[in-house]
Design brief:
Structural class: alpha/beta
GO molecular function: hydrolase activity
Pfam family, one: Abhydrolase_3
Radius of gyration: 20 Å
Organism: Taxus chinensis (Chinese yew)
InterPro entries: AB_hydrolase_3, AB_hydrolase_fold, Carboxylest/Gibb_receptor, Lipase_GDXG_put_SER_AS
Distance between the termini: 67 Å
Protein name: Alpha/beta hydrolase fold-3 domain-containing protein
Shape: globular
Helix content: 25-40%
Largest sheet: 4 strands, parallel
């Protein structure tokens, strides 16, 4: 006789952020949009626009310390990778379409944003997405599929991994540990893949010597369990002849620019990003 009992929770990830049930279903916790800033950021005009069912576009006109404009996007992917990459690529196509006078655009974007100066950036999982989308954009621009040209790629402690364990993986981090990393990759990678899949281990993406990648900036935390994988990728890119700038903040852990925004290291990391944008524009 078939078991008609109610599906039970077999895995509760991060106290209900994701629940896996015995029937194979996945239930995600309520996704709360970031609250509006309470501090006075009048020097940085910004605006959110809903882009799709799980994402939005944020436009920000950066202060005088950085003379470019940027657009960012946030996603809550409902399936495994590469769904998040596809969403990010759709956002780039949206930005690409804004260059046309025939497209109706929010006047705020017309007055504040320069759609010819686009940087792809992200931290942690967002850094992983920014890397893969930046590689795609380099090829898409050459193929004519994307008219805008990415000026630079900025990766903050990107969420990379691999099957091989490294010395930094043994760090006793209160922020992020190997068990958490392995769990997230198990839930994110295509079924049947291991952590050497190129989505996780970008060194496996293949030879990038012919890829027209823009300059890349890495902000790396010295106490991050992912540090070694990030530095391996930096060396791989340099070996492919790419322009790579690396800043390692030795005393910091994964997520430090978001978790300790007012600390000296976080402020210095922002200064490095601003300097990179100014030089690359």
């Amino acid at each position: 006789m078939a078991d008609k009992s109610e599906p039970r929770v077999v895995e509760n990830v991060y106290d209900g952020v994701i629940k896996l049930y015995s029937d194979g279903s996945i239930v995600r916790g309520d996704h709360q949009s970031p609250p509006p800033p309470t501090d006075d950021y009048s020097c940085v005009p910004f605006k959110d626009i809903v882009f799709g069912p799980y994402s939005w576009i944020m436009g920000a006109s950066l202060p005088s310390s950085s003379n470019g404009q940027n657009q960012g996007a946030d996603w809550l992917p409902s399936t495994a990778l590469p769904a998040a990459y596809h969403d990010a690529i759709a956002a780039l196509h949206w930005i690409d379409s804004m260059k046309s006078d025939a497209v109706e655009v929010d006047p705020w974007f017309r007055s504040h944003a320069d759609f010819c100066k686009v940087f792809v950036a992200g931290d942690s999982a967002g850094g992983n997405i920014a890397n893969h989308v930046g590689i795609w954009a380099a090829g898409a621009h050459g193929d004519g599929d994307l008219q805008i040209q990415i000026k630079g790629i900025i990766l903050g402690y990107p969420f990379f991994g691999g099957e091989e364990r490294t010395p930094s993986g043994s760090y006793n981090s209160p922020v992020f540990n190997l068990e958490m990393s392995d769990t997230m990759w198990r839930l994110s990678l295509p079924l049947g893949s291991n952590r050497d899949h190129p989505f996780c281990n970008p060194v496996g993406v293949g030879d990038l010597r012919e890829a027209a990648l823009p300059p890349m900036l890495f902000v790396i935390a010295g106490q991050d369990i992912l540090k070694d994988k990030q530095l391996q990728y930096c060396e791989f890119l340099k070996g492919c002849g790419k322009q790579v700038e690396v800043h390692v903040f030795e005393e910091e852990d994964h997520g430090f620019t978001a978790l300790k925004m007012e600390d000296r290291s976080a402020v210095e990391a922002l200064r490095c990003i601003s300097h990179f944008i100014n030089l690359t524009n």
